[in-house]
């Protein structure tokens, strides 16, 4: 199997593929699904856009169809957009759960959110306190 792949990789067909937009277009496009996957674990639900997320899911669904219909089929582009559509739908689920199914209320009840439902950021609060101390000590001098 590996030797067959290496034999193909040395062929003119492989060079044509690796130097074409069929390869580099999807490779460049992988930034979208990678960012979406990173947002699933690292982005607070308050930061998810309720309009942009389904728009990106629809965009990727349309381009999945394009990748499937174009000849020859572009499996790399299809995988890229399938990953992005899936990640965006997970994000939309997180958005709906947070804003419309009680997720935000639970966080307020647990004390995770401060006044006005704004997420408490201890690092930010520490930084603000540090800057305030510097400003007050500078103005006192």
SSE layout:
Layout: H1 2-9, H2 12-18, H3 21-29, H4 31-42, H5 52-69, H6 75-100, H7 103-109, H8 122-140
Helix pairs in contact: 3-6, 4-6, 5-6
How would you portray this structure in words?
- The protein has 141 residues and is an all-alpha fold.
- It is built from 8 helices and no strands.
- α3 (21-29) runs parallel beside α6, α4 packs parallel to α6 (75-100) and α5 (52-69) runs antiparallel to α6 (75-100).
- The longest helix is centred in the middle third of the chain and has 26 residues, at 75-100.
- It is elongated.
- It starts with a helix and ends with a helix.
- The model has no long low-confidence stretch (mean pLDDT 82).
């Amino acid at each position: 199997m590996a030797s067959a792949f290496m034999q193909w990789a040395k062929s003119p067909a492989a060079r044509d593929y690796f130097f074409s937009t069929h390869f580099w277009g999807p490779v460049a496009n992988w930034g979208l699904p990678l960012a979406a996957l990173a947002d699933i674990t690292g982005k607070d639900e308050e930061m998810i856009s309720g309009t942009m997320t389904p728009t990106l899911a629809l965009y990727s669904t349309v381009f999945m169809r394009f990748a499937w219909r174009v000849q020859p089929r572009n499996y790399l582009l299809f995988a890229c957009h399938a990953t992005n559509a899936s990640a965006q739908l997970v994000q939309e689920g997180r958005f709906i759960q947070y804003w419309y199914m009680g997720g935000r209320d639970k966080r307020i009840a647990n004390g995770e959110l401060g006044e006005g439902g704004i997420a408490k950021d201890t690092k930010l609060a520490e930084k603000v306190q540090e800057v305030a101390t510097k400003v007050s000590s500078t103005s006192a001098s």
